[in-house]
Write a structure and sequence with these properties.
Oligomer: single chain
Low-confidence stretches: none
CATH superfamily: NCX, central ion-binding region
Strand order of the largest sheet: 1-4
Strand content: under 5%
Distance between the termini: 32 Å
Structural class: mainly alpha
Radius of gyration: 19 Å
Mean pLDDT: 78
Number of helices: 11
CATH topology: A middle domain of Talin 1
């Protein structure tokens, strides 16, 4: 009976993720058009922040007593975002990579991953390390919005906007974004909580739960949102969402988790770090090619399945 209830709640959570992802994308596209900025920037900011909400909620809940879940969640989510989300999305349709815009952001994603490894070398992510990561998040946010201002200035020279309906359009878009983020958060909570209950019944460790069950659960918003965006023809939102989410996972979520209570780093975590870097580095190959085609999507998806199997076996 309990298993049936958990399954039903999981189904409800997945449905909320679908509706939430759809509304978040719609609201983000409206904002991008009205502010005269690219969908890619919206994907890396509004959409990425929104879809990272479940990871943040899970890490805050686990801070202090369950640091293994926080660490596993961050590493596992970043791997899942590329292996599962990008992989599945690329199988559906080729993903065009904006070399001009994403060259900097992909480099930043790899840079913050290396920063996380460096901070972990002493065997602990202290509260000071957490504050450093949060400070880096502030710097990245400022950098991103400098690009927004530059885009608006360039685009305003070629477009004239009508102010009579702007306010109502913003209200509609903001409402869609807030509703979408809310549904993503609640849906992910229902999905993750019920999956964790089942995982614990099978005797899985905290880190393994974080790497697999929670990581997949909290990456569902990214998956649903990216797939919906791609089906609507907004591949730039889908790719920007993943790159932005991976950066926020380390700087914001790990930063907040470490600031609330230090995170102990076991030696075997560095192998997981190496796998995370390898998946992230695959986007450099895609950047050089300018597109992620179906064969690469299949490779990423298979690599992710192999990672999951190895996590349970080793």
């Amino acid at each position: 009976m309990d298993i049936a209830i958990n399954a039903a709640l999981t189904a409800v959570g997945l449905a909320m993720l679908c509706f939430g992802g759809n509304w978040l994308v719609n609201g983000g596209v409206i904002i991008a058009k009205k502010l005269r900025i690219s969908n890619l920037i919206i994907g890396m900011t509004v959409v990425a922040y929104g879809t990272s909400t479940p990871e943040l909620a899970a890490s805050i809940a686990a801070a202090g007593n369950h640091s293994g879940i926080i660490l596993g969640n961050i590493i596992g989510s970043n791997i899942a975002n590329i292996g599962m989300v990008i992989g599945i999305a690329a199988i559906m349709v080729p993903l065009v990579i904006s070399r001009k815009t994403l060259r900097k952001e992909i480099s930043i994603m790899l840079g913050v991953s290396v920063l996380l490894i460096v901070l972990s070398l002493d065997g602990e992510l202290s509260q000071y390390d957490g504050i450093l990561l949060i400070g880096s998040l502030v710097a990245f946010t400022i950098f991103t919005f400098q690009d927004v201002k530059k885009q608006r200035k360039e685009n305003s020279e070629n477009h004239e906007t009508k102010n009579d309906t702007k306010k109502s359009v913003y209200l509609k878009a903001t409402g869609l974004i807030i509703l979408g983020i809310s549904l993503l958060g609640i849906g992910a909570y229902l999905t993750v909580e019920n999956a964790v209950v089942l995982a614990i019944e099978f005797g899985l460790s905290e880190k393994l739960i974080g790497l697999t069950v929670i990581a997949i659960g909290t990456s569902l918003p990214e998956l649903i949102t990216s797939v919906i965006a791609i089906r609507k023809g907004h591949t730039d939102i889908g790719v920007g969402n993943i790159v932005g989410s991976n950066i926020y996972n380390i700087l914001m979520i790990m930063g907040v988790g470490a600031a609330l209570g230090s995170v102990v780093i076991a030696f075997d975590v560095f192998l997981d770090y190496a796998i995370m870097i390898a998946f992230s580095a695959s986007l450099l190959v895609a950047l050089k090619m300018g597109v992620i085609k179906r064969p690469m999507g299949i490779i990423l998806a298979i690599a992710y399945v192999v990672f999951l199997i190895a996590s349970f076996v080793i």
